[in-house]
Specification:
The complex is a heterodimer of chains A (about 120) and B (about 425). Chain A is an alpha+beta fold and about 120 residues long. Chain A folds into 2 domains: about 35 residues; about 80 residues, Flavocytochrome B2, Chain A, domain 1 (Roll), CATH 3.10.120. Chain A has 6 helices and 5 strands; from the N terminus they run H-H-H-E-E-E-H-E-H-H-E. In chain A, strands 1, 2, 3, 4 and 5 form a 5-stranded mixed beta sheet that branches. Chain A is elongated. In chain B, the strands form 2 sheets. A 6-stranded antiparallel beta barrel of chain B has the order 1-2-5-4-3-6. A 5-stranded parallel beta sheet of chain B has the order 9-8-7-10-11, with helices on both faces. In chain B, helix 16 links the parallel strand 10 and strand 11. Chain B contains 16 helices and 11 strands. In chain B, helix 1 packs across helix 2, helix 2 packs parallel to helix 10 and helix 4 packs across helix 5. Chain B folds into 3 domains: about 190 residues, Up-down Bundle (Four Helix Bundle (Hemerythrin (Met), subunit A)), CATH 1.20.120; about 90 residues, Translation factors (Elongation Factor Tu (Ef-tu), domain 3, Beta Barrel); about 110 residues, Nucleotide-binding domain of ferredoxin-NADP reductase (FNR) module (Rossmann fold). Chain B is an alpha/beta fold. The chains are: A alpha+beta (about 120), B alpha/beta (about 425). The interface between A and B is large, with 35 and 40 residues.
Chain lengths: ~120, ~425
């Protein structure tokens, strides 16, 4: 029973991983472009309405992130990150305001809080 | 098994699963991402529970309902943890799949995400190889053991994955418990710190490919009872080279002076090698484990022994006279395989409560059905079975068909891989 579950689970896992890899590598550009407009886009004006610790959005590199849930987890003091709520924070994110970049782990974490793209003409 | 022992492993599992999941439960994240995070922590918790169950300590085994039960749960929890951890990255990727397969793949691609993901992938691959070895029954024990050790490496790589992702306090909880359980296993069990020193004092051939080895304690003897089994590792000595591994052996006698006797049948490389063990070889003994034949009822009993499965019954008969009517059915293939037959006849002659039945030949289902008592004779009896797994399975089926409640049928497994 356990052996069958192992074989089934492992086969299914690699099948899904390979399917995803294939889809990502062979996705026609047109299809991606068609899919993108479905997402809600946000303007900087909208982002600026979420500038509180209890409701904190940021625009970073053309994407909008709702970081409210993440704020208590952020390693730095609140005074470092809170002023960027409701702001275009790309430069601050890239340099940590001290010329140091965030880690790839932080980039990955950030992906989880993305709510949509920033409207191009609002940048 | 009492109620608390029955609940012990599920409760421990619930605690080790619940702490990381509740501690790190995501708030206000998309459904797939939340699921991915919960699956990751749930897999960690189940792996910790599985690690705890591979600790062969007598007090822990007694508390958790026996070593055989611990290993059965160890296998199930390890497999479930593995399947959950496979689903963890897939659920995280599914969160981005609605946006774009490219974005979904970017979340899984170590080349895009660096060491936080490389460590996660390496952990998963080590887990996969370690699990594959667990299910590969044809591997020799030493090869299996090294490959199974990859599961420990997988857990440490998993901890590195958590650390590189910056997942603070919950990471320390998983790391500390992992190091504690793995270190405990390596030092106390594999390093034999939990074992007592003995010396081979006598070796006697009792059947073709079966030797009875007497072990003299060099310090305080272990605490064991007739019917239990011990883990024994033999060291080098004289011309004999130890196998470098411990094996479970049922005790065939516990002598009043603290000497232990085990019967070793040549079933694998190490047990074949042990047929030539010499007097004076040092051994490390841990136990006793198990509750087979320990709390027997005062009512009539039927004992079924297949081949070397005679040893626990022999230990009980050598220990003290029976207190209730007992039928011992001993099955063996040929006369040369029949260990202890003369001694059993002598014991039966001196014990009116013992009805000894010897059967030579192949123990197929039809023969077994003929040798076991009919339904009417089984009423009120309790059965104890010890022998090859196929024989035990067939006997359980026949006794069940003849109306014996499963609570009255006792047997013990030795699947400690």
């Amino acid at each position: 029973m356990m052996r069958k579950l192992f074989l089934l689970g492992t086969s299914l896992f690699w099948l899904l991983i390979l399917t995803l890899w294939f889809q990502a590598g062979h996705a026609p550009p047109a299809r991606t472009e068609v899919a993108m407009p479905v997402e809600t886009t946000y303007t900087l004006a909208e982002v600026s309405q979420h500038s509180l610790e209890s409701d904190c959005w940021m625009a970073i590199d053309g994407q909008v992130y709702d970081l409210t849930a993440y704020l208590p987890e952020h390693p730095s003091k609140p005074s470092i990150i809170l002023p960027w709520c409701g702001q275009e924070a790309s430069e601050a994110y890239r340099t940590k305001t001290k010329g140091r970049t965030h880690s790839p782990a932080a980039d990955q974490l950030l992906l989880g809080y993305r709510i949509g793209p920033l409207q191009k003409d609002s940048r | 098994m009492n109620f608390l022992r029955t609940l012990s492993i599920p409760l421990l599992t619930a605690v080790l699963l619940g702490i990381p999941v509740i501690w790190a439960f995501p708030a206000e994240l998309p459904a797939w991402r939340s699921l991915g995070i919960v699956l990751g922590w749930a897999g960690c918790g189940l792996l910790l529970a599985s690690l705890l169950l591979m600790l062969r300590e007598t007090w822990l085994a007694e508390w958790l309902g026996g070593l055989a039960r611990m290993y059965a749960w160890h296998h199930v929890l390890g497999t479930v943890a593995y399947l959950i951890l496979l689903a963890h990255p897939l659920a995280l990727a599914a969160d981005n799949l609605a946006t774009s397969p490219v974005l979904a793949w970017a979340l899984l691609s170590p080349s895009a995400q660096g060491w936080p993901l490389w460590s996660g992938w390496l952990a998963l691959l080590c887990l996969m190889l370690g699990m594959a070895s667990a299910f590969a029954k044809r591997l020799t024990y030493p090869v299996w053991r090294w490959l199974h050790g990859l599961l420990g490496v997988a857990i440490l790589l998993g901890c590195l994955h958590l650390w590189l992702l910056g997942l603070g306090p919950t990471f320390f909880f998983v790391l500390l418990l992992s190091l504690l359980f793995i270190g405990w296993r390596l030092i106390r069990v594999d390093g034999s710190l939990a074992a007592r020193p003995y010396l081979v004092s006598q070796v006697q051939k009792v059947a073709e490919g079966v030797v009875e080895i007497s072990l003299r304690p060099l310090a305080a003897p272990i605490s064991a009872r007739a019917g239990q089994f011990v883990l024994v590792g033999f060291d080098d000595g004289g011309r004999f080279e130890g196998c470098g591994e411990s094996h479970p052996f049922t005790l065939s006698a516990i002598d009043p002076d603290g000497h232990l006797r085990i019967s070793v049948k040549a079933l694998g490389d190490c047990t074949q090698h042990l047929q030539s063990v010499e007097i004076g070889v040092a051994a490390r003994v841990q136990g006793g484990f198990g509750d087979f034949l320990i709390d027997r009822p005062g009512t009539a009993q039927i004992w079924l022994a297949g081949g070397i499965g005679i040893t626990p019954f022999l230990a009980v008969l050598r220990d003290k006279p029976l207190t209730g009517p007992t039928t011992l059915i001993y099955l063996y293939r040929q006369d040369v395989d029949a260990a202890y037959v003369e001694e059993l006849r002598t014991l039966a002659a001196g014990q009116p409560q013992l009805n000894l039945q010897l059967h030579r030949g192949e123990s197929d289902a039809a023969s077994l059905a003929a040798w076991l008592p009919e339904a009417a004779a089984l009423v009120g009896q309790t059965a104890y079975l010890c022998g090859p797994p196929g024989l035990v399975r067939a006997a359980v089926r026949i006794l069940g068909q003849r109306g014996m409640p499963s609570a009255h049928i006792h047997f013990e497994g030795f699947d400690f891989r």
